[in-house]
Amino acid sequence: MMDIKRIISKIERDYIISNLKKEERIDGRGLWEYREFQIKSDIIASAEGSADVSLGDTKIITGLKYEVGEPFPDLPDEGVCTVMAELLPLASPLFERGPPDEQSIELARVVDRGIRHADCVQTKNLCIKEREAVYILFVDMYVINYSGNLIDAGGVSALTTLISAHIPEGVWNSDKGETDWTGKYITGETLVKELPFVVTYGKIDDIIFLDPSLPEELVCDGKISISVTEEKITSIQKSGAATFSIDEIKTLGKKSLEIGKKLRKDLNLLQYLSKID
Amino acid sequence: MPLIIKDEYPKKLFREDGKRLDGRSEKELRPIKMEVGVIQNADGSAYLEWGNNKIYAAVYGPREVHPHHLAKPDRGVLRVFYRMATFSVFDRKRPAPGRREKEISMIVADCIEPVLFLELYPGTSFEVFIEVLDADGGTRCASTTVAALALADAGIPMKSLVSAVAVGKIDGKKVVDLSGIEDKAGDADLPIAITWYNEEVSLLQFDGDMDLSEMNDFLSDAKEALESIHKTQLNVLKSKYLKLQEETKTNKEKESKKGDE
Amino acid sequence: MEENEEPVDNDFEDFEEDDASRDVVVPGEVLTEDVKNFLPGRGTILNKEKNKIISLNIGLKQIKKNYINVIPLRGFYTPRPGDKVIALVVDKNPVKYKCDINSKDFGQLKPKNTIKRGRTRGFRGGDVDREETGTERFDIGDILIVKVLSADRLNKPELTTVGKYLGKKSGGIVITIDPPKIPRVIGRNGSMIKMLKSLTGCNIFVTQNGRIWLKGEDIAHERLLIESIHKIASEAHTVGLTDRMQEFIINEKKKRGIE
Fold first, then answer.
1. Is A141 within 8 Å of A208 (Cβ atoms)?
2. Which end of chain A is more exposed for a tag (fewer CB within 10 A), N or C?
């Protein structure tokens, strides 16, 4: 039985902190090391793209669905991509049933912003007919097991889902005034340009470490998530009551670009591009 | 927002060669794969792939009842929450639970309750969370089947497991284990579950039309299919333990052989 | 002030190492139809027709005298009087502590059960009956070794910290395993736990609610011990486990370069 408690024992807190001060973590990782990522893509037959991503024991399954609808008035020739997240009660005794709460909204929004500001999804390629018909993509993340750092797992899950996409290709039939289907598919090749990664750190006292595991996350004073592309920082979110010095933020910015580069290379997400044409 | 590409129903549900659209014969079950202990945080858990159905079940309990007013002083409370992911179906489903999900939650709970000893756990709750990530016909049956495994995995005493399957009629012929298309385009659909300790029916629904002799056939075809599903469930529960026993026994034999040399 | 685990009267016999592997059984499985010669024991039930003994759990089949038992391999903790458990204080008010003891109910610890009576010398030298009236002794977040005084259907389990080896723990770390596996971590006559202690050099306190407190000379030893305990839990139903675990730990120590 997993013994996750809302109250963290003093022993546990002291243990984590005293070991972090010696740069030791219970699972043997270094302060700047990720747990293992395990990725499977295109596993949901009903979805137009999907990914099953585990980061350590944290598991998130994401699926992509689409609709065709009217664009936003201020972006008449662009499609829309929205990200949602649900912290399923089956994933943890700490998650309650009900509509998305702050934690799930934060997860969705941080992942969404990391993707959006990186110019990742090419929404101009999602236009069927200006002002009339565009694709509306729904990237929905479901947390299946919560063991710390939902954000980084979610980021990879959402990105892999978009890369694995195979959305029926539509063209505008101006005579009929509606969309015809070519029988071909829009894949991640057309859909995804940049590969942003979100990198999350925890902070306890004055120690900062990458990829908090569950006990570390429950004990930490705060977190900071930094989204990066190959060259740029595209999104930042600080959460929790901890404060970060300017120097710390600069260091983390630099570290995030390095860590992002390594992750991009190691995970090689483009291997999950859909093979349908 | 209606999708432009229609989820169209084929005109015929049998192929030229007499097989069903997915190649099965009339009484054949779709491939079923199950696993327990898949969600570390849960007290018990199981995962099932049944055809294209992909379903997780997690059990938490016994634990306090929330909200408190639902607690019963003389027995425990079993609550099942059946939910479908937005991307589990062809037309994206709204995230919030709908009436169908609530109905199925209740039916599955009623179906499983007979095998539990709720009177031993007054004032507490057992919660079973079911998440359908991919749906392709017979999800309430698959959910019942995987929920029973998750309860056993949680170490909750049970009189026996429960197994479920949907039988029905498509293009006038009786079949076992309806897929999504067969369910939607077929003539009749009968989901049924058996509790094995007394071999009686604990879930039963029917939509369509049938005469008495057809009903008899449905019930006996179902029983046969359910026995096969039950076997699979039992194997899954035992296999991880048996595998370890095998592995360590062989090593021990190797060790003693070495000792003899 | 760490205390070593004292010999515990436990269900070890359940996981006794035979040469023969025990049968793994599942809920609903028929254990025997010979109801004349066998009686339903732990984890089993007689069916309605009274002609079969059925398993209620996933576990190991065991025959003891003429009882057929099933030793569960999975399960939750149910408090019984006399159990020593690790409790986490989650709340307190002036008259009691509320403790998480990894069971469906929270345990209650009253101040009178946190101090030995009548042993303090009063102002003028005579013995005084000092009663602990408030809840200042322990705080929320404290880990306590407690004994279960009483537990029944109507009342929350009552706990006490008065007794040998009981009280607040400081330092170290607490892990949790499946409660049914606890006897296996202790072993017959404590053989497994003795081996774990001597090979890893850690102090270990194993309790009935699946929680284990441990403390070693450094995190490398503690990590190896934690991994070993989880391995014992997952292989609890196999034979030759103590020897295998000994080999495992010795090899891992070499691999990890620790003494």
1. no
2. C
